[in-house]
Every structure is written in structure tokens, then in C-alpha cells.
Amino acid sequence: METPRQLVHLSGLLFVLLAQFTGSILAAFSFFAIAATFLIYSEYIKREKIMLAGFLEAAEKRLRNFITKFERTGTPRPFLGAFWFYAGCGFAFLLFPLPVASAACSILAVGDSLSTIFGKKFGRHKLIGSKTAEGSAVFFAGAVLISLVFVNPLPALAGSAAAAIAELLPDVHFLFKAKGRGFVDDNLLIPIVAGFIMLLI
Fold it and tell me: Which one of 18, 119, 144, 198 has the minimum C-beta count within 10 Å?
């Protein structure tokens, strides 16, 4: 189920594309609205308080069963990755100019997805936790290629390298407990770190 989950991750590119026409503020609002929806629904599922009756209850359960198939096992709450993905992109569009924010969120959508899919299938050399050198290399390559759509080569290279490092950070020993509780997530770190570095360059 990892590949379909990462395809959902890649769907964030649709919102990056829409941002080119709507502008940064509306894009940020859209990302935050989706993040809030995931957070509210995850809280609803976590508390297991089903207050709907009849058809609505059955429909909600079917929806829940379908959506939770795309979740990793062992997360502190449902949809945590999706929440941080959309929240991270929302912050990027608030903090950075449109080209930088677009590149940063595209790096997250493409680089992170490629590294997970490729790393799980071909990764042989462990770096930190479950992260592999092969996954990180593919992350960097995919990140550079997608960010070149929005920014010049030097910011693309620097931002992609910083993002590849940011992806590893949640698995570092002193941050791992915070990651397990849902407070640190690469979906938040990647667009913020990449955007900041690109802005500096």
C-alpha cells in the first residue's frame, strides 16, 4: 500500500499548479483548510465517537475504511502525515515568494514520494533509521528536477540538498521520540527548510 499512499502524496502537486493562478495567499488558505480537515477527521476517528445514524454512519465507516488503507501502521493518530503535508505547504506559501513556495512544496511531493518508493524497493545502505542512501539520492535527483520548473539551478540544487537532509532529521536519535508522538514530521520540515535555503540563495 506504500505506492498508492505516495501517489496520494503526489496529488499535492495539483495545489501547487493551482497556486500559479490563484496566488500565494489563496494557496496557503487551501493547504491549511485541507490540513484542518484531516486533523478534525483524525480526532473524530481517534475518539471513536460515532454520532451518525443509519445510512450516514455506514457511509462514514466505508469512507474511513477506504482512507485508512493509505495510512502507515503505528502512527500516533490517523492522517498525521497528510496533516503535516498540507500544513507544511501552507506555511511555505505564507512565508516564501510564489516561485520558492511552489518549488519547496513540489520537492516535498515528488522527492519524498520517490525516496520512499525507491528506498523501500532498492535501498541497501542504511543512513538513519529506515532511511537509505539510495532513497536519499533519488530524493535529491527528483527534487532538483521538479524545482527547476520554478527556480534557477543554484537555488534548486541548494534547496534540494537541504530538503534531502531535512527528510532524515526526524529519524535522528534526539528527535525520534518527538516524531513518534507526531510533533516532528518531515512533511513539515522539508518545505520550510528547502524554501528558507532557496530564499537565502
Answer: 18
- Name, in order, each residue with C-beta under 8 angstroms of 164's C-beta and a sequence gap of 6 or more: 111, 136, 139, 140, 143
C-alpha separations of 43 from 64, 76, 151 in Å? 13, 11, 38
Which tens digits make up the pLDDT trace of 123-139?
788 888 778 889 999 99
The enclosing H or E element of 135 equals helix 133-147
As given in the structure block, the three cell numbers for residue 1 are 500500500
Model-level pTM?
0.79
Q: What is the dihedral of CA 184, 168, 189, 99, to 10 degrees?
A: -160
Which H/E stretch holds residue 61? helix 54-68
